[in-house]
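Reviewers of the previous submission asked for a worked example of the structure-prediction workflow described in the proposal, so we include one complete record here. The input consisted solely of the amino acid sequence. No template or homolog information was supplied to the procedure at any stage.
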Amino acid sequence: MVYFEGCPGCAIDRRKAESTGIPYKSFFHIWMITLVSCLPISSLYPFLYFMIRDFHIAKTVEDIGFYAGFVGASYMFGRALTSILWGMVADRFGRKPVIVVGIFTGLVFNTLFGLSVHYWMAIATRFLLGSFNGLLGPIRAYVVEVCRPEHQAIGLSLVSTAWAMGLIIGPAIGGYLAQPTEKYPKLFPTKTIFERFPYFLSSLCISIFYFIILLSCVWLPETLHSHKYKSTEDQSNESLIQQLADSEDFDEQKNSSSTNKSILKNWPLMSSIILFCIVSFDDMAYTEIFPLWVESERRLGGLSLSSDDVGQVLAITGATILLYQTFVYPHIVKLLGPIITTRIMTIFSMALLITYPFIAHLLEPWLSIVLNIASMIKANCIVTAVTCSFILQNNSVSQEQRATANGLATTLMSFSKAIAPAGFHGHKSTNMYYSFKGGKWYSYFWTL
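From that input alone, the workflow returned the following C-alpha cells.
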C-alpha cells in the first residue's frame, strides 16, 4: 500500500493498517459530536405547548398544537434544504470543516432559540439551526472512514445510538429545566433572566455542551484524502501511480466510478434511503405526539402527566438504548443481517403502536410501568432500523461520494420529518384537544 505524505486520509489509512483494534477514542469523540448535534432537535417538545401559549399567537387552546407543529417542522425544513450541499462541501473540502461549522452554528442558534420572545423568532432560529446543521451526513461517512471494515457496524451503531439518545435526552433536558422559576423557586428566584426567558435554561445547558465539544474538535483528525490520482510528468511518478493502481483501495474506487457518476441510479443506496425516510417519518411523528398525548388531560384521551414525568420516561428510554445498541444490537445484526433485522423491528414497531390508545385506560402503578416498557421497546425498534439503513447506505458508495450520499439521505429524511410534525399537529383528526370519544387518538396511531 502506498501512502502520500501530508495527506490526512493516508495518515488515517496507515493508522488503521498498523492497528487492528477498535478505535475507542475516535468512536467516543464521534459519539459525543452526534449526541450534541441531536439534542436541540427534540429538547423543545416537552415545553413547546407552554411556549406557544406564552407567545399568545393561538386564539384558542385548540390552535396551540397547530402552531407548535410549524416550529417543529422549521428545523427539518431548513436541514432538508442544505444537507446535500453540506455533503458536497464535505466531499470537496473535508469532513472536519463541516463538523466544526455545524457545532458552532448550533451553539449560536440554539442559544437564540431559548431567548425567543416572539413566534417568528422561534421559527427563524429553528430554521437557521437546521440549515447550518450539516454534520449528520458527513459524520456517518467519517465513522466508516476512521475504522477498519470489520468495525464499521459497531461505529455506525454508536452513531445511531447517540442520535437516538439525543432525541431522548433532549426532551428530558427540556422537561426538567423549562420554567425553572416555577419548578425550582429556591434555586431560580423571580425577577431574574430565567423568569423573563422561562425556556432559556435548557437551551443554555445544551449550548454549554456545544462549546465543550467545539473545543474538543481541535484534536479531530481529517479522513478525506487530499491527493489526486492523475498522470504525471516523469517516470518516477508514473511508477508510483502504477503501484497505487495495484492496491486494493484504488481498485475499489475505480470499480465504483460508475456509481459515483450517477448516485441517483444506485438502487441499493436509494432503497436504503427510502427505508431511512419511512422510519424517520414514523419516529418524528411519534416523538412530537408522545409528549402532547402524555401531558393532555384524561378526559381528552391523554394521561394527565407533567413535563417532569415525560422527561423521566424519556431518560429511562435513553439509558436502555445505550445498553441495547452496545451489547445486543451487534449480535442481532451479525446473526440475521441488516435487512432481515430491519423487517422484524419495523413490523414489531407497527404492532406496538396499536396498543398505545389502551394505555390511557390504565391507572398507577401499572400506567408508569407499561408506559416505560412501551417507550423503551418503540425507541429500540426505531434505532435498530435506522442503524441498519446507515450500514446499507455507506456500503453502497465509495469515499469520494460517501458524504454526498449521506447528505442526500439526510435531506430526504428531513423532508419526511418536516412533514410529520406539521401534518400530525395541523390535522384536526390528530389534534390532542379533540375528544377521545370520537376515536381521534386511535386515528393517529392507526395512521402512523
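The two ends are 51 Å apart (CA to CA). We consider this example representative of the routine output the project will generate in years two and three.
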